[in-house]
């Protein structure tokens, strides 16, 4: 017979994960409304509506810029109102974005009106996602306690990237069967179901302490944000340019490399849920940056397709725990009543990094070629590793002095 004492930690961990998932699932719903139209809208704008590739790209990019600009506000509202209200408000934004897509489909005979509606939907979706994502993280922390904040952030990432991975191909299939109209109706149904499911769930109270101004929060966590921004470059260049890299090399299978990256990302978070609590965020981040750097160097120097695939897998493995590892340390730099604002501001550094990586890496490619993008990215991730070591030593000095 098995020892009950050996089973208890596993049961406790399962219960803990289920409590986290009971609220993080709402972030999955918000990211599903992002993933479903992601692979459809560029082609719809360019091929069906007849607009240029610039407008096709802009329709997608508007969501990211809206998310970036609204994240700090989302954090402050979550601190002030409580995370449940912010999540529901964010899901309402996802619903309104689906409504804009529906109207755009109905006004397809008027391309300019349809384009304006699509742009409005993307902007609303960006704000909705920042509210739902930030609120869900804080709701999860409120449910299980700040001791498990690393686990909450990790599960939040699994839900986010899992929804994107499922949503993009599923959206293409839905579009093939019923066009933008059916896709919009399904997005509306997902958002509405999430709202109805969230409303009866018990809320956790917002903190009543004095809120720090945004400048003060930024001053406490900007160093961690810079590290996150540098470390996120690897994710940006794999997600955006790996298929182009394979074309440059004359190889097939670039999509499989991207799948390996995503699979390694999710699997690493599932296999090591307690790594941050056991070893500390900064130590985990150092290891992750090292693995990510090796992966990027392997991609940049690849002379066979499998070498590039292995590099993509290592990059996904390394990047997987970067966000929660650094984030756990970052949010502890502010009082509990300001953790929502800190988490949102911290996340905005990754939004900014991913927003700038595409165009800047494109410039590098035009002058130096695709492989150099991965070598340069490895150098930036190495800089993140060195900054992490330096920051870790600086934070240890006051404790040693005491």
From TrEMBL:
Residues 19-396 form the Major facilitator superfamily (MFS) profile domain. The keyword Phosphoprotein does not apply. GO terms for cellular component: plasma membrane. The keyword Membrane applies. One of its GO terms (molecular function) is transmembrane transporter activity. It is a multi-pass membrane protein. CDD domains: MFS_YfcJ_like. SUPFAM superfamilies: MFS general substrate transporter. Pfam families: MFS_1. NCBIfam families: PRK05122.1 (NF003477). HAMAP family: MFS_YhhS. This is Uncharacterized MFS-type transporter BTJ39_14110. It comes from Izhakiella australiensis.
């Amino acid at each position: 017979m098995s020892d009950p004492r050996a089973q208890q930690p596993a049961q406790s961990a399962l219960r803990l994960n289920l409590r986290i998932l009971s609220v993080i699932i709402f972030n999955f719903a918000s990211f599903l409304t992002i993933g479903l139209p992601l692979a459809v809208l560029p082609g719809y704008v360019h091929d069906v509506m007849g607009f240029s590739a610039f407008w096709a790209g802009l329709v997608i990019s508007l969501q990211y810029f809206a998310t970036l600009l609204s994240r700090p506000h989302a954090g402050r509202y979550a601190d002030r109102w409580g995370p449940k209200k912010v999540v529901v408000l964010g899901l309402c934004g996802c619903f309104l974005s689906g409504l804009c897509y529906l109207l755009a489909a109905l006004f397809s005979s008027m391309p300019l009106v349809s384009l304006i509606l699509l742009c409005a939907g993307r902007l609303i979706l960006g704000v909705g996602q920042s509210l739902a994502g930030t609120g869900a993280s804080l709701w999860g922390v409120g449910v299980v306690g700040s001791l498990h904040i690393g686990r909450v952030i990790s599960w939040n990432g699994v839900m986010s990237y899992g929804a994107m991975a499922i949503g993009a191909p599923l959206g293409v299939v839905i579009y093939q069967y019923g066009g933008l109209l059916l896709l919009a109706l399904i997005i509306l149904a997902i958002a509405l179901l999430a709202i109805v499911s969230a409303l009866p769930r018990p809320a956790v109270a917002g903190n009543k302490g004095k809120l720090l101004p945004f400048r003060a929060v930024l001053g406490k966590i900007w160093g961690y944000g810079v590290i996150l921004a540098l470390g996120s470059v690897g994710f940006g260049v794999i997600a955006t340019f790996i298929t182009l890299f394979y074309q440059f090399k004359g190889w097939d299978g670039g999509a499989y490399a991207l799948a390996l990256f995503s699979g390694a990302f999710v699997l690493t978070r599932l296999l090591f849920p307690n790594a941050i609590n056991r070893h500390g965020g900064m130590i985990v981040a150092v290891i992750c940056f090292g693995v990510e750097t090796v992966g990027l160097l392997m991609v940049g120097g690849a002379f066979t397709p499998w070498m590039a695939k292995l590099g993509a897998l290592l990059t996904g493995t390394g990047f997987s725990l970067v966000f929660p590892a650094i984030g756990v340390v970052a949010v502890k730099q502010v009082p509990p009543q300001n953790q929502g604002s800190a988490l949102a501001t911290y996340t905005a550094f990754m939004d900014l990094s991913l927003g700038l990586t595409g165009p800047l890496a494109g410039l590098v490619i035009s002058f130096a070629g695709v492989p150099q993008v991965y070598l340069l990215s490895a150098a930036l991730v190495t800089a993140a590793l060195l900054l992490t070591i330096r920051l870790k030593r600086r934070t240890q000095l006051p404790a040693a002095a005491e």
